[in-house]
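# step 3/5: fold
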Amino acid sequence: MSATNDADHHFWWSGDAIERFWIEQLQTDEYGDRLIAPDNTTYRPMHGVEIGDVVFHWFSERHPQAGPKKGGIYAVSRVTGPLQRADRLWEEQTSIEIPLSRRSNLNRPILLEDLKQREHELRENKDSLTSHVQGKPLYSPWQFPKTGLKPMTRYLTKLTATDLEVIAADHPHIVIALGRV
């Protein structure tokens, strides 16, 4: 059974061919070949993912390949199929999944400490988008507490094309990785 994008799943990026980027937050590699989540409002952004979209994999500090103070973007993959209902339950709820290409590891991870160098620009991008989308949820990967830039703890967040440009300015190897997926 295939899930569809209906009126309940219209997002600020719907129909925008440039906004094709996501960040998946990982603590393990258990589901490395797909995005998978319960089908509920917490994971609503899953319904905004399209075939061909790019998923950047953020390994949290709990991920075995990252470790303390080493959270960041470690890999990239591409969405290869549509969102579908999964055969398994997730905490007794129906789950949904989206198939991904094999992950391509970045030559060098882009750590949170690297991104903090561009915090001002990332904050400006988020502020600009907030005023542009007029109250729609952003599903941003960033939060800006007084202690400085941090990733959101949501499983799947929307990375904007403008944020990717900011990141690529210091990390051109991310663009090379896009060509490998």
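# step 4/5: annotate
The CA atoms of residues 121 and 155 lie 23 Å apart.
# step 5/5: archive (pending)
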